[in-house]
Automatic annotation (TrEMBL):
Domain of life, per lineage: Eukaryota
CDD domains listed in its UniProt record: ATP-synt_Fo_b (cd06503)
PANTHER family: ATP SYNTHASE SUBUNIT B, CHLOROPLASTIC
Originating species: Barklya syringifolia
Something else known: In plastids the F-type ATPase is also known as CF(1)CF(0).
Protein name: ATP synthase subunit b, chloroplastic
Subunit details: F-type ATPases have 2 components, F(1) - the catalytic core - and F(0) - the membrane proton channel. F(1) has five subunits: alpha(3), beta(3), gamma(1), delta(1), epsilon(1). F(0) has four main subunits: a(1), b(1), b'(1) and c(10-14). The alpha and beta chains form an alternating ring which encloses part of the gamma chain. F(1) is attached to F(0) by a central stalk formed by the gamma and epsilon chains, while a peripheral stalk is formed by the delta, b and b' chains.
Amino acid sequence: MKNITDSFLCLGYWTSAGSFGFNTDILATNPINLSVVLGVLIFFGKGVLSDLLDNRKQRILKTIRNSEELREGAIQQMEKARARLRKVEKEANQFRVNGYSEIEREKLKLINSIYTNLEKFENDKNETIRFEEQRAINQVRQRVFQQALQGALGTLNSCLNNELHLRTISANIGMFGAMKEIK
């Protein structure tokens, strides 16, 4: 069996005179070296490591709080946007309904205006027809009167002589005189 001092590097005791050496037995030296290094790291690095972890923890908590605040703000903005959307949809529906009713009113006005214009045109047409009928009747009367007058004058001129002509004039004058007395 080996001596304990053979497997460790002793500070107060040198195994060989004037030389410094390493123990190459890995199974014996590694756990001891590791425990020493870990002990030193834990002793000196405990504060640094805990500070780093605390800082990281604080940053994570701050990020979580900020994200919660942003989430709440986003929720509020979303609710405002939804309320505005509902309001705009309601106004759009109102405009749509008003637009349809306005279109219907304008359509009825246009139809009524067309009917009024048609009635006016019909009345104007009927009045024009009556006027043209009256004019045609007057023209026919005038032609018949002219033809009758020409026929009567022709008959009178061919049948009348001077004596008959004077008697007819006297009789007509007598009739006009009798009419004046009646009035």
